[in-house]
Give the backbone structure.
Amino acid sequence: MVHISVTKPPRLLKVLAVISAVGMALINLVGFLDTQTNSALGCGPDWPLCNGQVVPNLNNEHVLIEFGHRMIVGGFAVIATIFMIWAWRRYRDWVEARIFAIIGIGFIIVQSILGALAVLFVNPPAILALHLGFGFLAMVGVALLTAFLWQMDCLAGGRPAGLQYRSLVLPKGLVWRIWIVWVYTYLALYLGSYVAFRSAGEACTGWPLCNGQIIPPLYGNIGLDFAHRVAAVILAILVLELLWQLRKQKSARPDLYRGAGWLVVVVFLQIITGANLALSHLGTGPYMLHVGNLMLLFTLVSYLAVQSLQPVPKAQRWMAEPQPSIAPTREPRHP
């Protein structure tokens, strides 16, 4: 591994990082609760006002949830933006710091615009799905910048960090596998959110069978819900295959191997929470558990995708240094 000299992040910056990461996750959870409880129009078709008022009458639970959602979005979006601009300026020589900050700030803005459009156009499922998907990208931008900050802290303190492991070059086929899993996960996330916002989550009753059938009629909401279940199984197969491939890099890249192991666990937890959701007839608690685990899953697969790439500081000296390569290991042959 290559030694990298960095400056230690201030304590206040790390505190803002944690608050921002937790806050972005909370925004997505409360946003999904808002939709699940049919509270998205609790403020009527008004935006940014709520029922024509700056502070509405909060004697109705739907108004309370929608107004609370808007306040949480506004508050944590400001905190996250301050954190990302500060981190960007402090580590402006690092391309990843700029990219993560741009992703976080950019998708916070896009998410806010889509949220306003969803209210003005009375919650069309396609816009709601995009709203959630972009919300996950904003959350991941903040989470990855937070992880980057902790890597800077570890390096400044002389402790091993994932950033150093990234100085080793992975086989291109393995990098492609990791990014294929990332892309597939993101598409599956959109499918699941569209199923939820189309109110198709109970089209397949029971679990693991769909309406008592292994393969039901593939039309309408039944086809959508069944496709969502099949997508989860395919994701489980993909992450198991990825873990199998990464076993060859266990000693050289323990960060990726351990991360893939945790990814397998979280994917199977996603399937379990999905089964619980189906059997609970889409109960609010099981829904929140399923979405919360999904946020963890997408953050983890995004971290793995970033860890598969080499670090990209701006300094030309780093770019000129030869980087060691990891050759795919082979089993020794015995005569």
About this structure: The chain has two domains: 9-160, 170-309. The chain has ten helices and no strands. Residues 125-156 form the longest helix (32 residues).
